[in-house]
Amino acid sequence: MLNLAARWFFSLAFACAAMSCAPGHAAGEPALTRLADSIFRLEAHDAGGQTRYGSAVLVAQATLVTNCHVVRDAWDIRVITRLVPERGQLIRADIERDVCLLHVPGLTGTVVAFGDTTSKKEGDTIVAIGFAKGADMSVTQGHIEGLFTYKGRGRVVQGSATFSPGKSGGGLFDRDDKLVGVLTFKCLAGGPFHFAVPVEWVSTLMKNRAGRTSDELQTPFWKRRGDAQPAFVRAASLFASGKCEALSSLATTWQARDPASKDALFFARRAWRCAAAQRNPGVWEK
After folding, report:
1. CATH ID of 9-214, from 3.40.1080.10, 2.120.10.30, 2.40.10.120, 3.40.190.10
2. Average pLDDT of the chain, as a whole number
3. What is the pTM of this model?
4. Pairing of the two strands 113-114 and 99-103
């Protein structure tokens, strides 16, 4: 069986990103300035002496959201501020959805406003903000390329706003500076295949008072292998890799199993586009 999981970054903790400004605001007021005190850099140290780098977003006073794949198994989590590094404590975790909350006593900054993914559509402007490993905060702009459902409220966002290793846990914002997702994974094949888990999952975890909500042995949905991976992740990997026949087969099986699935229809259309582009190079269009 094709190992699609190998096509995804398992931890976006190792590279650099480009810089741009968000639309919809006055010139000279880039997103980096407006949201700079809402995004933080993380260093997660494990017992083996390894360090994972990531980003986090201030979602409540002294509370950050980040990806679990950045901070799980860490014995020491450091939040890098303008003054001194602060110690963060993991307080709630949804390992399957890759969303974790950290408590950082005394942490100050601007709490972000929450948007939603249910009102978004393909083509909407998005901005990705976070820290690449060892680099300053950076901002990239793009558009929504796809929106996919997975277990409950909210939709996973596929976008062309690129992000690189170290930005895991950073924020995906709309043109009104509202948080719509948490930067999580991307396809190794390249192209506009950068994914953020929805802000609705953050809201759900914040309202859950039970503490850690997931078995520590669980694996984030996008890191699973084979058929254990959600169909939209497998389909996106095939599409990004130009494997049109395999994508068409997956979409056909998916539609037969779930005729009402909008995601299955989305990738059935992508399979047709993929095949058409291979037959006639140069005709690929959005």
Report:
1. 2.40.10.120
2. 85
3. 0.85
4. unpaired
